[in-house]
Amino acid sequence: MSTLAANLPGSLTTNQDLDPDRLREAFGFFPSGVVAVAAEIDGRPIGLAASSFTSVSLDPPLVSVNLAVASKTWPDLRRAPRLGVTVLADHHAAVCRQLAGPVDERFVGVAHSTSEAGAVTLDDGLVRFDCTVYREVDAGDHVLILLELHTVDHVGLGTEQGPLVFHRSGFERLDRTGRP
User: Fold this and answer.
1) CATH value at residue 74
2) Model pTM score
3) Domain-embedded: residue 5
4) What is the number of helices (H) and of strands (E) in the chain?
5) Would residue 15 count as lying in a domain?
6) What gap in Å lies between CA 67 and CA 100, rounded to an integer?
7) What burial class does residue 50 get, using C-beta atoms within 10 Å of its C-beta: 0-12 exposed, 13-18 middle, 19+ buried?
8) Euclidean distance between the first and final Cα of the chain, in Å?
9) With b meaning 16 or more CB within 10 Å and e meaning fewer, what string describes 7-31?
10) Residue 109 is part of which domain span?
11) Alpha carbons 125 and 116: distance in angstroms, whole number
12) Domain membership flag for residue 51
């Protein structure tokens, strides 16, 4: 162990306790926003919720999502010429759970729009993107999907809505009052 690490209170020690349940719990300490990824496939909306969304590049404009290799929805979505990505608002907790539920019920009662190219977005999301798959990268039990953005719509600009935040296996709201 380095001198620096040995002198830090609570310093990390090498261990092999990388149990998937403990890792999931540890990863859960990092809060993330949530997006809906959706497209029209065979005449109906297909989509899912993802909490692994992040910006990647401005030139070209790229974002990413990570999805489980075992996803039953991604094989259908990847066939779509365009995908819609919607940044979910803090009132979308129930919609997020619905998007993780039975495939045939994911868009029941959910206001959404479909572009001419087939990208599906939620009408009241904070931001909506129209994109295409730029590249897929195998990443263990997940696939990292890079998406190239073609349009952006700032639906929530100027509203008091905040993003839906996923933290420690639950949903939270940001305290935007400036208080610590």
Assistant:
1) 2.30.110.10
2) 0.80
3) no
4) 4, 12
5) no
6) 12
7) buried
8) 35
9) eeeeeeeeeeeeeeeeeeeeeeeee
10) 32-166
11) 19
12) yes
The 10s digit of each residue's pLDDT in 77-114 is 999 999 999 999 888 889 989 998 899 999 999 999 99
Can you tell me the distance from the alpha carbon of 33 to that of 167, in angstroms, rounded to the nearest whole number? 9
Does residue 179 belong to any structural domain of this protein? no
Q: How confident is the model at residue 172 (pLDDT cuts 50, 70, 90)?
A: low
Q: How many domains does the chain have?
A: 1
pLDDT averaged over the chain?
83
What DSSP state is assigned to residue 13?
A: -
In whole angstroms, what is the distance from residue 130 CA to residue 41 CA?
A: 15
Number of other residues whose CB lies within 10 A of the CB of residue 162: 17
What confidence score (pLDDT) does residue 157 get?
Answer: 60
pLDDT of residue 1: 44
| Least confident segment among 66-80, 96-110, 148-162, 164-178 | 164-178
